[in-house]
């Protein structure tokens, strides 16, 4: 148990530390804290800042006073100037590591393996046009087109090694720039952990089969209830700079994409005979006393066909007493 005086000592020391950060300190007298300040900055910023700045601050005259805020601001200012004078500096720092996916299109263009990422980009654009996700148009008056960005990722084998030739490039909308009115509901019900545990336990007790599924490019299956426009996609410019795209599908990154997909998936499950659970809106239950299709036999024990599906966005489980019913 800490005595009253001990608590007071702790509070005094804490207030001294806070005051020390706020008040200017003489760098000549406190060299180690200045080094610590530098080391606690983001590693990427450290790489971009010349050591001349740090040396100058550590060797400055006794009349110069520096606080943590001014130290950090000066470092960040030099980092900004470095990127302004040489925008590709950080990209060159990262592009040498081919074991990680690129963070931007600019980095892709500077990497030795740029060709395979360009192939992934071509596949993504081809798929978007194939499913009718984009429609060329001119921006209507009063509307705003939001930007997009490329997101790159590797796919991995079961042993953890990179699957060569199967790189992924995906266009993501900048939903953070959407205006109110360009989106409706943004929530998406997901099955609670307790619900999933109950379904798994119930399946074990009743000797049901368990399946898991993942819907590929799930959001792109859903349409949009609102009009959303995006700017031309980096790397694929149009002949006319005024052209924008009207989105016909729920592109990843939009505020409403998750809800639009949930709404579509729910419609499909209800259409095949499942019902939405009232206690958990992301759990669907189906019971059939007669076979819903000639290819699906009834259980040999004479019981009804049962299918329970808890859903988490585009992933889910299926507990059933008939594998034919699931497939």
Count of DSSP strands: 13
Structural class: alpha+beta
Amino-to-carboxy terminus distance: 63 Å
- What percent of residues are in strands? 15-25%
Mean pLDDT: 79
Radius of gyration from CA coordinates: 29 Å
Order of helices and strands: HEHHHEHHHHEEEEHEEEHEEEEH
Strand order of the largest sheet: 7-13-12-11-10
Proportion of residues in helical segments: 25-40%
Low-confidence stretches: 24-35, 60-66
Counted by DSSP, the helix tally is: 11
| Main sheet record | 5 strands, antiparallel
- Using the alpha-carbon principal axes, give the shape: globular
Could you explain how this protein is built, in words?
The protein has helices at residues 4-22, 31-39, 43-48, 51-58, 68-85, 89-95, 105-110, 114-130, 193-205, 257-271, 323-326; strands spanning 25-26, 65-66, 134-138, 145-146, 148-153, 168-173, 209-214, 229-230, 243-247, 275-276, 283-288, 305-312, 315-320. The protein has 327 residues and is of the alpha+beta class. It has a five-stranded antiparallel β-sheet with strand order 7-13-12-11-10, with helices on both faces. The protein has a four-stranded mixed β-sheet with strand order 3-9-8-4, with no helix packed on it. Strands 1-2 form a two-stranded antiparallel ribbon. Strand 10 (275-276) and strand 11 (283-288) form a beta hairpin. It is globular and about 65 Å long. The protein starts with a helix and ends with a helix. The model is unreliable at 24-35 and 60-66 (pLDDT under 50).
């Amino acid at each position: 148990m800490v005595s009253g005086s001990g608590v007071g000592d702790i509070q005094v020391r804490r207030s001294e530390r806070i005051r020390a950060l706020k008040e200017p300190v003489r760098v000549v007298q406190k060299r180690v804290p200045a080094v610590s300040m530098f080391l606690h900055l983001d590693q990427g910023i450290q790489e971009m800042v010349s050591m001349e700045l740090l040396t100058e601050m550590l060797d400055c005259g006794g009349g110069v006073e520096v606080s943590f805020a001014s130290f950090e601001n000066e470092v960040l200012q030099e980092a900004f100037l470095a990127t302004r004078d040489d925008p590709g500096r950080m990209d060159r720092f990262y592009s040498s590591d081919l074991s990680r996916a690129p963070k931007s299109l600019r980095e892709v263009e500077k990497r030795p393996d740029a060709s395979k990422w360009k192939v992934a980009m071509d596949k993504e654009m081809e798929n978007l046009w194939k499913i009718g996700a984009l429609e060329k148009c001119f921006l209507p008056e009063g509307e705003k087109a939001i930007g997009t960005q490329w997101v790159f990722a590797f796919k991995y084998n079961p042993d953890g090694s990179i699957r060569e030739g199967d790189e992924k490039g995906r266009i993501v909308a900048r939903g953070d720039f959407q205006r109110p009115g360009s989106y409706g509901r943004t929530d998406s019900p997901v099955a609670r952990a307790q619900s999933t545990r109950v379904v798994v336990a119930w399946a074990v007790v009743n000797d049901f089969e368990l399946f898991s599924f993942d819907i590929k490019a799930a959001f792109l299956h859903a349409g949009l209830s609102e009009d959303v426009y995006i700017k031309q996609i980096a790397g694929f410019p149009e002949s006319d700079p005024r052209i924008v795209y009207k989105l016909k599908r729920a592109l990843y990154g939009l505020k409403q994409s998750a809800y639009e997909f949930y709404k579509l998936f729910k419609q499909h499950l209800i259409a095949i005979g499942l019902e939405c659970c009232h206690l958990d809106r992301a759990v669907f239950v189906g019971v059939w006393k007669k076979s819903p299709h000639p290819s699906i036999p009834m259980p040999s024990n004479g019981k009804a066909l049962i299918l329970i599906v808890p859903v988490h966005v585009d992933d889910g489980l299926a507990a059933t007493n008939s594998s034919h019913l699931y497939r």
